Amino acid sequence: MEKIIREVTSLLEELNIKYRLYNHKAVFTIDELDTLDIKFEGMYCKNLFLKNSKGDIHYLLILEDSKKANLKELARYLNSTRLSFASDERLSKYLGLKPGSVTPFGVINDSENEVIVLLDRDLVGLDKINFHPNTNTATITISYSDLLKFLEYEGNRVDLVEI
């Protein structure tokens, strides 16, 4: 098992979080994931790494795959300056991730807890949600409550948002 995946699964096991791991070829979109010969259970999520206009606040927005994020509206909701997608360099610096692998598990690499995690309210209570374990060559299914348990352990600020 890849070292990256093992880092995530070891922590989940340490926290007594139940998960299901699916290994697969590298995928960069949900559409590519759908072409695999694997029957995933639960909801797919979009994970968007954002920054404010000054670049001093970073957000990880997690929302239902079928939804579109209106960044202008989200900035207003957060009382923030204009939001935009953060660069690949920032993604690597703050979450230790590469494009195509953005996931809430990336906060493992955010030792200063600088990234604010924004969760779509429609995810609350779901039994099965799918995320990459810091690499796009696998997918992990966990519950919303276990996702919260993981995020609380990591110590990043978590806010619920309406998308």
TrEMBL record:
SUPFAM superfamilies: YbaK/ProRS associated domain. Residues 24-150 form the YbaK/aminoacyl-tRNA synthetase-associated domain. It comes from the Bacteria. GO terms for molecular function: aminoacyl-tRNA deacylase activity. InterPro entries: ProX/PRXD1, YbaK/aa-tRNA-synt-asso_dom_sf, YbaK/aa-tRNA-synth-assoc-dom. Belongs to the PRORSD1 family. This is Ala-tRNA(Pro) deacylase. It comes from Clostridium intestinale DSM 6191.
